[in-house]
Amino acid sequence: MSDPSSVAMAGAAADAVRPVLSGPSGRRPKRAISPRNIVIYGTLGLISIYYLLPLYVMVVTSLKGMPEIRLGNVFSPPVEITFQPWVKAWAEACTGLNCDGLSRGFWNSVRITVPSVIVSIAIASINGYALANWRFKGANFFFSVLIFGAFIPYQVMLYPIVIMMREIGLYGSLWGLVIVHTIFGMPILTLLFRNYFTSLPEELFKAARVDGAGFWGIYFRIMVPMSMPIFVVAMILQVTGIWNDFLFGVIYTKPDLYPMTVQLNNIVNSTQGVKEYNVNMAATILTGLVPLVIYFVSGKLFVRGIAAGAVKG
Amino acid sequence: MATGRPRQLFRNIPSKIAAIPMILTASVVFLGGTLWTIAYSFTNSKLLPRWKLVGLDQYERLWATKRWIVSFENLFIYGVCSLVFSLVIGFVLAALMDQKIRFENTFRTIILYPFALSFIVTGLVWQWILNPDFGLQGIVRGLGWDSFSFDPLYNPDIAIFGILIAGLWQGTGLVMVLMLAGLRGIDEDIWKAARVDGIPMWKTYLFVVIPMMRPVFITTIVLIAAGIVRLYDLVVAQTGGGPGIATEMPAKYVYDYMFGGQNLGQGFAASTMMLLSVLVVLIPWAYLEFGGKKRV
């Protein structure tokens, strides 16, 4: 399967999924400085500042000492830079009786995110593959229910899932939460994979069938190797989504398994006594850091992920 | 025919086995779970679900509860404002980005990055920026305008707009990306024709391009609306529903009654009301989407 033409086809298929975002086209504007350009760049510049301000405020606040915060305002840059708030947020901040900082939540989130991402993508890609290449009677009905379910408010299903988890003895455990994430990630991911697999040339599938490959053979030897881009997109979607989850973490785990977002909220919103704004902001940045890094590193793939998920076929 | 049936059933076995998770999720969790919750919303379950029907009692109590009414009003105000503002801002930004500008990627990266952040992070940052002593209000007062007052975290009348600012900051990037994808899908010839006819740009956008982008708008509206009804984390992080009950939301009501107040029946009734309000948006959309396809 390593001949160049199939690679090119995979590339073409990848292009087919990608929305038309590939940058400016057409003729160039003639003058660099015109009233029109000033308005456009001015507006975009101002808006960019507005969007960047909260990030700036977070960083600046987290680097100040408490006396400095009480004297100044949220926007004033730090006079004396201190990393003490970061250390404290990571290792010493208290939630209830535990005073080991956000690090516990961080590791919990890692332990939750890694299996959830793997399981949800594995299951959804196989679902999508079955829907795209091995249609059976009734498949479309379940798929429609699945997609419709994506729009139903989670709140309607929260309690029945609690009962199901209790029945199979996973309520409050890590694997229970993994299953919940798999369930709620399924509609969007299945749609993503189904559309991608459908866009692959059918001749490949037929040729493999003629050569005697079965359901799993074709999946592992042809579909997966040819679909790396969509697997990456799905991973980006899932890692950020699961890392940012709050509701499921609160409901389906116990306090010693709380993900980072839940712990962050507990640190910031339930501290007794003096509020330490700098520690709070350091903790907030730490929690936002993983999705932010993924966002800035993945760049266009992230955009593609949300666009593919939203503008559906 | 008699032998045809079972053979149908046993054909394609691996595919059916592979689809078991999907079938279970769709039928047991989504369909079954929803029906279960609706059914139990007619019971007087307290700590544990109990099958003792009480008719519409839970709903009557729900609509007699001040907190629920405030939550629902909040959802309505937030929903309408959020829809209108994010569509308008998102579209204007996308139109600006579509003017063949330089640094398009940079601008897009900046405007979209809040979308990668969780609602918890968003809520906490804006809680800090809107802090009346050190944040916006404090700064404007420090400039000499002593009577300036903007404290959405403490003033119940405008509290919901504090949430709105944070929500818009987080979500408009997504709308912009979707709109931009829609704009890029518009045929270049449309623009040329409009230019030849001497139609001003804003008119072309308003009367030609936007009607052409109807499917994109509909998808975006459905997406935003589904997100709005679920709104929970942002409120928990930014205000905790306060001051008082000024920023309570239905999703929070459901959570508090189901898992905090141990009044399951109320939680079920409230979540069924949430489902209803989603269906109000969803059914016309499904009708348009699928009714439209049949016609073509």
Automatic annotation (TrEMBL), chain B:
Gene3D superfamilies: MetI-like. It is a multi-pass membrane protein. PANTHER family: ABC TRANSPORTER PERMEASE PROTEIN (PTHR30193:SF42). PROSITE patterns: ABC_TM1 (PS50928). It comes from the Bacteria. GO terms for cellular component: plasma membrane. Residues 72-285 form the ABC transmembrane type-1 domain. This is Sugar ABC transporter permease. GO terms for biological process: transmembrane transport. Keywords: Cell membrane, Membrane, Transmembrane, Transmembrane helix, Transport. It holds the Pfam family BPD_transp_1. The chain crosses the membrane at residues 20-42, 75-97, 109-129, 158-183, 204-229, 268-288. The keyword Transmembrane applies. It is found in: Cell membrane. It comes from Zhengella mangrovi.
